[in-house]
Recover the amino acids of this structure.
């Protein structure tokens, strides 16, 4: 049996991590709460949306499908940001961390289970829970929702991530890739933050992301100003789509953006893995 | 076998161990003694891979501890002094979570130990006293069936009858060929149980010897007058208890507290005696 990765053992670690979602496993010494309770609470957010809609007296129109989809996806992303601190807070804690570190599974199996729980399992459970709750609300004769979540033709258009309609399929694929990699990058920042900070991990990671976002925005504005003013390059946002198709500067910027996402994801995966591998308790 | 070779360890700039060598062959109950802060818990953590040595190595059956390979982790269990327990869980649920990872786990042993230690396996941890929680964890750890059991201050919180039960359980387990390492301040609780004895000091191992070797080299004299050549003397109700070098080869009853004090006060002399 491999000492680095064994699928059966990995299954045991994942099952152990999933079982820990149960509120029964909450440890009173932990300040971070319980992930299972978070998932259940988030799954009931469609009820809150419906109540707000009723209170605003707008139930006649009902909440549009795309708005609810946006909420569900947003919740899933928020969940991915919370999982590292809430469910894996102990990874760099002296007291609680040793218990998990001593489980007879490899460091890689534990790390992969953490990634799977953060990126897929918990967000998916939240999404599915909220989907079911939303469907039940729509089914009830309250008329607070416009229709069932699956009754939609063009979600991507609403989300503004598919400006490539009418172009070859590769551009739609790229739109999906940008969205998925963006999500992974965002969630991985919190996985790394969880190994880096000892307290208030989510809040500190968020602050760092705001800081980085601010710096990137300032640099982007300066670069754009330099392109327009000094080099005289004409930026025509309306023509963006065709420029992508013809491989103009915008297409390149898009490709560089995608490449940067992949690069940063790789760096975050590498450094969070390195920190977990070398962690002492 | 657990082997520690040329081990250096420090917390940032505070050195804890400097070039120490130790080995723990299988089938004994080792007592790890030392003053506060000499690194008893740290040594246990290094052995089970929770801390990485600066230099040197710690291996368990030839596997480097800090790699924490699954095979090594299946052979070793570490029970720290304090454990964060899930409030609503019971000892039974606790072992149910752990048991899939340990092929040697025995539910029968767990229930037997829980019965012997008089704790209910289906009672919630939050409804238990600290001592009962500790007993549950001891039963859970021992039922995993690992070859090596590392216990940090295991008798903390145990009442007097439980300490006796604890000693009896450990003796039986050691008879099965398991290796147990106990780190403790409460030497009276483990007297007549631990053998060999390891005494740690700042940066070094002061003593690593079996009880037989200790009583060969040192004589524990009870009830006499204070002796000027004593490595350690203590006034007791029946007179002085002296620890002196054993020059006659006579056998005596080991007193761990007195041994500990004698070793700490005569570090160089003890090294010479046991060299």
């Amino acid at each position: 049996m491999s000492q680095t990765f064994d699928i059966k053992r990995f299954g045991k670690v994942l099952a152990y991590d999933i079982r820990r979602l149960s509120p029964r496993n909450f440890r009173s010494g932990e300040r971070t709460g319980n992930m299972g309770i978070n998932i259940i609470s988030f799954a009931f957010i469609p009820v809150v949306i419906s109540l707000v809609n009723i209170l605003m007296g707008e139930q006649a129109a009902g909440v549009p499908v795309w708005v609810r989809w946006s909420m569900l996806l947003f919740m899933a992303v928020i969940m991915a940001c919370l999982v590292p601190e809430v469910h894996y807070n102990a990874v760099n804690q002296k007291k609680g961390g040793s218990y998990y570190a001593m489980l007879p599974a490899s460091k890689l199996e534990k790390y992969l289970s953490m990634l799977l729980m953060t990126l897929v399992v918990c967000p998916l459970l939240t999404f599915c829970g909220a989907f079911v709750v939303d469907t039940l609300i729509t089914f009830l004769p309250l008329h607070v929702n416009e229709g069932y979540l699956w009754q939609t033709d063009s979600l991507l258009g609403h989300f503004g991530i598919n400006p490539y309609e009418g172009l070859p399929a590769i551009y739609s694929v790229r739109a999906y890739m940008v969205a998925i990699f963006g999500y992974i990058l965002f969630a991985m920042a919190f996985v790394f933050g969880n190994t880096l900070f000892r307290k208030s991990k989510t809040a500190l990671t968020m602050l760092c992301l705001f800081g980085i976002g601010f710096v990137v925005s300032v640099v982007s504005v300066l670069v754009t100003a330099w392109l327009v003013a000094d080099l005289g390059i004409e930026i025509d946002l309306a023509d963006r789509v065709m420029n992508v198709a013809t491989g103009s500067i915008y297409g390149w910027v898009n490709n560089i953006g995608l490449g940067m996402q992949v690069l940063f994801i790789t760096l975050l995966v590498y450094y969070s893995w390195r920190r977990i591998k070398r962690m002492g308790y | 076998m657990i082997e520690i070779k040329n081990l250096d360890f420090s917390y940032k700039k505070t050195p804890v161990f400097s070039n120490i060598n130790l080995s723990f062959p299988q089938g004994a109950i080792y007592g790890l003694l030392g003053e506060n802060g000499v690194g008893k818990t740290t040594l246990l953590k290094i052995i089970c891979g929770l801390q990485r040595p600066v230099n040197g190595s710690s291996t368990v059956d030839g596997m480097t501890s800090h790699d924490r390979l699954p095979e090594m982790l299946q052979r070793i269990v570490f029970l720290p002094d304090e454990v964060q327990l899930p409030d609503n869980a019971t000892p039974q649920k606790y072992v149910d979570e752990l048991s899939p990872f340990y092929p040697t786990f025995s539910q029968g042993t767990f229930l037997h130990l829980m019965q012997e230690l008089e704790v209910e396996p289906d009672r919630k941890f939050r409804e238990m006293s600290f001592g009962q929680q500790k007993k549950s964890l001891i039963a859970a750890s021992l039922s995993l069936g690992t070859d090596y059991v590392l216990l940090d201050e295991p008798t903390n919180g145990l009442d007097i009858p439980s300490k006796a039960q604890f000693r009896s359980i450990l003796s039986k387990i050691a008879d099965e060929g398991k290796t147990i390492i106990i780190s403790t301040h409460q030497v009276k609780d483990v007297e007549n149980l631990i053998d060999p004895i390891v005494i740690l000091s700042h940066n070094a191992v002061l003593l690593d010897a079996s009880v037989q070797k200790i009583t060969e080299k040192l004589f524990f004299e009870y009830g006499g007058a204070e002796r000027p050549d004593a490595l350690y003397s203590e006034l007791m109700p029946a007179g002085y208890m002296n620890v002196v070098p054993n020059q006659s080869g006579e056998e005596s009853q080991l007193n761990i507290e007195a041994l500990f004090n004698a070793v700490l006060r005569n570090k160089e002399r003890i090294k010479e005696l046991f060299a």
